[in-house]
Amino acid sequence: MKLLATLILSLWPLLAQANLLISPQRLYFEPGQRSDALILKNISDSLQKFDIRFQEMAMSPEGKLLPLPDTPYSLASMVRYSPRRVTLEPGASQTIRMALRMRGDLEEGEYRSHLVIRQIPTQQQADQSQGGDNLALQIRPMLSMSIPVIARKGAPDSSLAIEAAEIHPHHVQVTVSASGNRSVYGDLELVQQQSGQATRLGTLRGVALYPEVDRLTFKVPLNRPIQSDAPIEILYREDPRYGSEREVHLQLRP
């Protein structure tokens, strides 16, 4: 039974990619923006059903998103969306339309909730799971994905820095710190001068820190070898689509 559970968990990322495409993977209401949309596309070869609900989540010191019963900076009650349950034929898409109405009495800061898309078993999937005597054939994992939905009141801000870095055989370990009342989101890049040219050694995209954590450590995979005769420039670039174009640097000697 333990081996079966391990197998299912190892397959989870493949199932997530095989069943559903979500765009965008992050929703940010810019100041003054009142509406947005999320697109779901069934990229499997069978009918799929999904339930869509808000869930409060917080980032742990290890960078994992954990469910919360409530938070004073919840956005869920200020966002209306439709539909809340969808059935998608193979190759079909559905637009989830969202409307924001922020309360006037809110204090300055970033408000966030996570939209969780959970797969619902179809009748065919339910029938298949009930058949057979083998327990391994009866347990079918259901897809679950979450999308952060963010809006800001006033002009919340945060500091940002690369604190430390360490070279490993196949990656560079980078610690990023941030503090303040808004999240940061961007990409980490490793660049080194090689043969007179700036050479990108590795990239890690979608690096996020939420206000509840002050630092996280990430592994940036190396796709080119490091040379010993020049420093490595480590860059964190915030994504301008989410409110900032900041860039911070750290030099690391091999």
What's the arrangement of secondary structure elements?
Blueprint: H1 2-19, E1 20-23, E2 27-29, E3 35-42, E4 48-59, E5 65-68, E6 79-82, E7 85-88, E8 93-100, E9 109-120, H2 123-130, H3 135-138, E10 144-153, E11 158-167, E12 171-180, E13 184-194, E14 197-209, E15 215-221, E16 232-238, E17 247-252
Parallel strand pairs: 2-10
Antiparallel strand pairs: 1-3, 3-8, 4-5, 4-7, 4-9, 6-8, 9-10, 11-12, 12-15, 13-14, 13-16, 16-17
Number of strands: 17
Strand content: over 45%
CATH topology group of the largest domain = Immunoglobulin-like
Proportion of residues in helical segments: 10-25%
Number of domains: 2
- SSE-based structural type: mainly beta
**Termini Cα gap:** 46 Å
Known CATH architecture of the largest domain: Sandwich
Instruction: Provide a count of the helices.
Output: 3
- So what's the overall shape? globular
The CATH class assignment of the largest domain is Mainly Beta
Biggest beta sheet attributes:
6 strands, mixed
Give the helices and strands as they follow along the chain. Answer: HEEEEEEEEEHHEEEEEEEE
Mean pLDDT: 88
Could you explain the architecture of this structure?
β16 (232-238) and β17 (247-252) form a beta hairpin. The chain has two domains: 10-153, Sandwich (Immunoglobulin-like), CATH 2.60.40.10; 158-252, Immunoglobulins (Immunoglobulin-like, Sandwich). Strands 2, 4, 5, 7, 9 and 10 form a six-stranded mixed beta sheet that branches. A four-stranded antiparallel beta sheet has the order 1-3-8-6. Strands 14-13-16-17 form a four-stranded antiparallel beta sheet, with no helix packed on it. The chain has 254 residues and is mainly β. The chain contains three helices and 17 strands.
